[in-house]
Amino acid sequence: MNGWLWAAAGLLAVGFGPVVWGVATGPVGRRVVAQNFGTSAVCLVMLLLAQGYRRPSYTDLALVLALLGPVGTLVYARLLADELSPGPAHTGALTATAAVATTAVVAAVCASTGPGRALVKLLVTGALLIAGNVVASRAVAGGYESAEASHG
Fold first, then answer.
1. Which of 31, 49, 98, 152 sits at a 20 to 30 Å CA gap from 125?
2. Within a domain: residue 28?
3. CA 84 to CA 142: how far, in whole Å?
């Protein structure tokens, strides 16, 4: 077992405890935020596993997950808008944690990968993860007005 696999195992151990607790208990807002954070953690684990097993296809899976994970959270935020509105979820700490973890993992994997097409794919994955987390967390927290509210 190499350092990349140890890092992936550590991220799973540290990241999934709060995710499971957040998804299993509490109000709907916290559950949706925990689901979004879990998606980010799995994406980062996939990047670490890609490096640890030397399987570039895992990076492709992480890229797809970085794109579709926040989209799923936005769907939940839209469908559960009535249940989320009474008490907006506090998403700042988890969003910041996800951004810092994403930056650390992507920077480490990029340094190990070296220049080339794989580096660009890693940078795109990291950018999608951070941007997706910010947008999805803001939507869950009720930070965006609906189109009807802004025009009516």
1. 31
2. yes
3. 8
